[in-house]
Amino acid sequence: MSALTILASAALCVGSVHDGDTLRTCAGERVRIANIDAPEMPDSPKCTGRTRRGWCDYRLAERSRDALAGLLAASPARLRRIGRDKYGRTLAIVTVNGQDAGEYLIARGLARRW
Q1: DSSP assignment of 51-97, as one string?
Q2: How far is CA 94 from CA 30, 42, 46, 97, in A?
Q3: 8, 47, 94, 106: most buried by Cβ count inside 10 Å?
Q4: Taking the alpha carbons of 64, 68, 69, 71 in that order, is the dihedral positive or negative?
């Protein structure tokens, strides 16, 4: 395994979980979980005004965020960076004990494939 691969899949220190598909590392890096879409939180600009562009189920959004936070708190997580999104966030596959966090949320109806 190359040094780049090892660094790219380093252990993850989670500073905060914003919603079911976005977190911030302890170092302040904003991370978007790749290949999923979770409901928007009430403060999302995607859910204001007449033009709703997001999945605006706030109760489900809170459940999704809490499920992700619980999963990440259960065991050390790993982060495999794969790129950046249009907002400058790191796109990554996040796993806990080999379990893909995105697939975990999808299986529970708390996110959908993107």
Answers
A1: ---S---HHHHHHHHHHHHHHHHHS-EEEEEEEE-TTSPEEEEEEET
A2: 13, 24, 24, 10
A3: 94
A4: positive
pLDDT value of position 90:
98
Per-10-residue mean pLDDT of the chain, 114 residues long, equals 45 92 97 96 82 80 97 95 96 96 98 94
Which pTM value belongs to this model?
0.86
Which domains are assigned to the chain? 3-113 (2.40.50.90)
Tell me if 92 sits within 8 A of 82, measured CB to CB.
yes
